[in-house]
Specification:
single chain; about 120 residues; mainly alpha; F1FO ATP Synthase; 2 domains
Length: about 120
């Protein structure tokens, strides 16, 4: 746990240092961080969706493996059901990815018009 926390602090400090190192023309082009916040939100959304779907997939596979271990005759039906469930879970991650692309790229002209760039 300490290792994860120390890595998070390291990445946070690295990001802050890079933000302070940006020149003025770059800050004006992105509207003093507004577009950066949109990109950060999109990235965090995809990350949360992917981690949640990963946990869901793990539970799905664990349940299928336990079911097959208890009743090997149902392995074919359980495998098909598991693969179908995994496809539905993966679709949720893809929806989050498409939404983040929409936020970043499709709305980019309206963001630029909003900040006057």
């Amino acid at each position: 746990m300490k290792r994860v926390l120390s890595l998070a602090v390291l990445f946070l400090l690295t990001g802050v240092a890079m933000a302070f190192a940006a020149d003025v023309s770059t800050q004006a082009a992105v509207g003093n961080g507004f577009l950066g916040l949109v990109v950060l939100g999109a990235c965090l959304g995809v990350g949360v969706a992917a981690s949640g779907c990963g946990v869901g997939m793990g539970h799905c596979v664990r349940g299928a493996c336990e079911g097959i271990a208890r009743n090997p005759e149902l392995s074919g039906k359980l495998t098909v059901t598991m693969i179908l469930g995994l496809a539905f879970i993966e679709a949720l991650t893809l929806y989050a990815l498409v939404l983040s692309f929409y936020l970043v790229f499709a709305k980019l002209p309206s963001y630029m018009a909003l900040i006057g760039a």
